[in-house]
Write a structure and sequence with these properties.
four-stranded antiparallel sheet, mainly beta, about 250 residues, 17 strands
Length: about 250
C-alpha cells in the first residue's frame, strides 16, 4: 500500500550491478532502476583479548558488530556496534562478562550479510613482580596484563599504603609500573595492587628484606692500615734475622 516492495534474492546469485523494472497492470514497463547487489559475506571480525569489561577489535568500516552469548542471544551493550572509519570497534557489556565465558562475535555488512563468527573466551587479569624479594631503597617492577587497551591503571602498595603511580595499558593490554621500596617499609610480605578504571583490581605480593649493614670508609681504611703495618713489621723482622745470620757466619769464619 505504501509503494514498497521486497524481492527475495535467488540463491547463488553473485554480487554485481542489477536493474529493476516495474510493470503496471496494463503492461507498461518503467525505465530501469539501477542498484548494486551485495551477496558476499564480510570476513570474520578481529577480536582482541578481553577481560570481559570491554570488547574491541577490527572490522570493515560501516559494518556492524554483534557479540552473542552461547545461546546466540546478543549481549546487551554489544549489539549492532558500528565499525568506525578507521576499522576500529569497541563495546562495553551492560554487565561485565566473567573469565571463562565464551561468546561469538559476528560482523554484518549494510546489505545484511553476516560473517562467520569469531569465537572468544573471556580471560582474567594477571599481575606479576619482577623481583620476589627487594631490599629497602631498591626498585621493584610490576607488570599487569589483559587490561583494556588505553585504560588508565594505577598501582598501590600495602601494608604501608604507597600510591606508586599510574600507567596506560598498551594495545596488547599490558602495563608496567616501577617504584622504589621506601626506607620506612618494614621487613616482610607486602601486597602490590593494580586497579584499572574499567577492568577492576588484581594483586600479588613480594617480600621486603632488611638492607645489609654497610661499613664506613674510615673503618675499612683503618683495617687496611693495620694489615699494612703487620706486613711491614714482618718484612723488617725478616731482614733482621737475615743480618744476624750473616754476622754469625762471618764470626765463625
Amino acid at each position: 500500500d505504501d509503494g514498497s516492495f521486497v524481492v527475495d534474492t535467488p540463491e547463488g546469485m553473485p554480487s554485481g550491478d542489477i536493474t529493476v523494472v516495474a510493470t503496471d497492470p496494463a503492461g507498461n514497463d518503467s525505465d530501469p532502476g539501477k542498484a548494486r547487489l551485495d551477496t558476499d559475506a564480510p570476513k570474520a571480525p578481529v577480536v582482541n583479548d578481553s577481560n570481559g569489561s570491554q570488547l574491541d577489535g577490527k572490522g570493515e568500516p560501516g559494518d556492524t558488530i554483534t557479540v552473542k552469548d552461547p545461546d546466540g542471544n546478543p549481549v546487551p551493550g554489544c549489539d549492532d556496534v558500528l565499525v568506525g572509519a578507521t576499522g576500529d570497534w569497541s563495546c562495553t557489556p551492560d554487565s561485565p562478562l566473567q573469565p571463562g565465558d565464551q561468546v561469538s562475535v559476528v560482523e554484518t555488512d549494510p546489505a545484511g550479510n553476516e560473517s562467520e563468527p569469531t569465537e572468544v573466551t573471556i580471560g582474567a587479569l594477571s599481575i606479576s613482580v619482577k623481583y620476589p624479594q627487594r631490599r629497602l631503597g631498591e626498585t621493584q617492577e610490576v607488570t599487569g596484563s589483559n587490561f583494556n587497551p588505553g585504560e588508565k591503571v594505577c598501582l598501590a602498595v600495602f601494608s604501608q599504603v604507597l600510591q606508586a603511580g599510574c600507567g596506560t595499558a598498551d594495545q596488547s593490554g599490558q602495563v608496567v609500573i616501577s617504584f622504589e621500596v621506601p626506607g620506612s617499609f618494614e621487613a616482610g610480605t607486602h601486597t602490590v595492587e593494580l586497579t584499572g578504571e574499567q577492568s577492576g583490581k588484581i594483586s600479588t605480593s613480594f617480600v621486603v628484606t632488611a638492607a645489609p649493614a654497610v661499613q664506613t670508609g674510615g673503618v675499612v681504611d683503618q683495617q687496611v692500615l693495620n694489615l699494612r703495618g703487620l706486613a711491614v713489621g714482618a718484612i723488617v723482622a725478616g731482614a733482621g734475622v737475615l743480618v744476624v745470620s750473616k754476622r754469625r757466619r762471618a764470626h765463625r769464619g
